[in-house]
Amino acid sequence: WPPAEFIVGNPPFLGNRLLRRALGSNYVEALWDVYEGRLPPSSDLCCYWHEKARQSIEQRRSSRAGLLATQAIRNTTNRAVLERILNTGSIFFALSDEPWVLAGAAVNLSFVGQDDGSETPRTLDGLPVLVVNADLTTGVDLSLARPLNENRGLGFYADVKAGPFEIDRATAAAMLASPNPDGRQNSDVVRPWVNAADITGRPRGLWIIDFGVDRTISDSALYEAPFEYVRAVVWPARKDTRRDAYRERWWLHAEPVRGMRNAIAHLARFIVTPAVSKHRIFTWLDSSVLADHQLVVIAREDDFTFGILHSRVHETWALAIGPRLETRPRYPPTTVLETFPFPEPTDAQREAIAAAAKRLVELRDGWLAADAARTLTGLYNARPTWLDMAHADLDAAVLDAYGLPRDAGRDQVLAHLLALNLARAGAPDAAKPEEGLPPAVGE
User: Fold this and answer.
1) Which residues pair with 193 in a beta bridge?
2) Degrees (nearest 5) of the Cα angle 294, 298, 299?
3) Can you give the pTM of this predicted structure?
4) What is the Cα–Cα distance from 230 to 209, expressed in whole angstroms?
5) HSE-up of 292 (CA within 13 Å, CB side)?
6) 297 neighbors 280 (Cβ within 8 angstroms)
7) Which residues contact 436 (CB under 8 A, 6 or more apart)?
């Protein structure tokens, strides 16, 4: 690029998983070589334009740059480019979530204005701020949060089937009653199946054929009716796929998630939440059920953990640190759950949280059972007084366990959680929780 005082533009939008297909391997390999050590290969294409502008400013060939970006630029996989901007200058202007019409489709974008750190004032989403963080927020900088070893193996994206393995209740019943040549039961591989629509809406009573993680074709074939169904229905859909593993192991789900299965193998039940959802709703599934990849599985069976996750404290963290798919919050377990510091309660506090969580679930289940048209999404859209009161009781118990006042605001909650996170992650100079409050504007 030639020297220019100001750089303004609309870089091309292309997710990192589509780079090779759209640009070719030679181009992508060359791009990664040029930017090695500056941007990770997981970066979306638009990030390279922001980095090129940053370098121009650092070399004093330019003063300021304002570029559009995918909304995902503030997410973990792309955030390196914004962190580099803050290392050599600042973000003086940003719109974190802006509606946009692109090729006739309504999408949500971000705008990023960067300089060498001298530009004032700074604005975020039209409001004056002291600083714009690398995740396009202000105040508590959650981009500093680290994964916690204590939470590894707690949350998982669930099973990816990649084929029509699901079956209706009548087909499942017929398979369960069908005999096999060596006397084995088809209940080993025919099980209830649930995806996000069954959680936010009404359960549809679907089942799925699931031969597990690494069952051989010869052993799977001994489950005669389920296997013959998969051979007739799934094999035609998988035989031409370009992924060798999917094509060669066509009778197995594409990504059966061994870690998730091992983590919940000895649990009577486990917690799930939709990966993308308007409301951050948690609920229970019986261990006999296979969860679909549209759900995040949390490998715990206790009411205490459920209560913490469904509290205002955790929801505040999830909404602040988690990415969005357009306007709907996402819940990636590595970003949200692995970084979240659980409280260290007394026995009495633990029991209070568990009791409040159990009561919330009992009330919700009773409300849903009264009318077949009712859904959890409908419940949280309407949010009747009894639901607010049940959540208030849960929130009070959780806030007590963290040592926070019951009227703690968003920034106070986030500052406390970030301080706990950094302390447990062993971050140098981590603030104590009570010292983690952000300064007021003007301080």
Assistant:
1) 290
2) 130
3) 0.79
4) 8
5) 21
6) no
7) 140, 415, 416, 418, 419
Contact 80, 36 (CB under 8 A): no
For 253-346, where are the E strands, in sequence order? 269-274, 283-286, 290-291, 295-298, 324-325, 328-329
| C-alpha dihedral, 423 to 426 to 430 to 434, nearest 10° | 10
What does the block give as tokens for 41? 């290969």
The strand ranges marked E within 348-407 are none
Element (H, E) at 220: helix 217-220
Q: Report the distance separating Cα 378 and Cα 383, nearest Å.
A: 8
pLDDT 10s per residue in the chain (443 long)? 899 999 999 999 888 888 998 999 999 999 999 999 999 998 999 999 999 999 999 999 999 999 999 888 988 788 899 999 999 999 999 998 888 876 676 778 899 999 999 888 899 998 888 889 888 888 888 888 999 999 999 999 999 999 999 999 999 999 999 999 999 999 999 999 999 999 999 999 999 999 999 999 999 999 999 999 999 999 999 998 888 889 999 999 999 999 999 999 999 999 999 999 999 999 999 999 999 999 999 999 999 999 999 999 999 999 989 877 666 888 999 999 999 999 999 999 999 999 999 999 999 999 999 999 999 999 999 999 999 999 999 999 999 999 999 999 988 999 999 999 999 998 665 555 544 443 332 32
> Given the structure tokens 């090729």, which residue do they identify?
103
Q: Are 59 and 90 in contact (CB under 8 A)?
A: no
> CB–CB of 272/135 below 8 Å?
no
Residue 373 φ/ψ region, left for φ over 0, alpha for ψ in the -120 to 50 degree band, beta for the rest: alpha
Q: Return d(Cα 282, Cα 307) in angstroms, integer.
A: 9
Token pair in block for residue 171:
């087909």
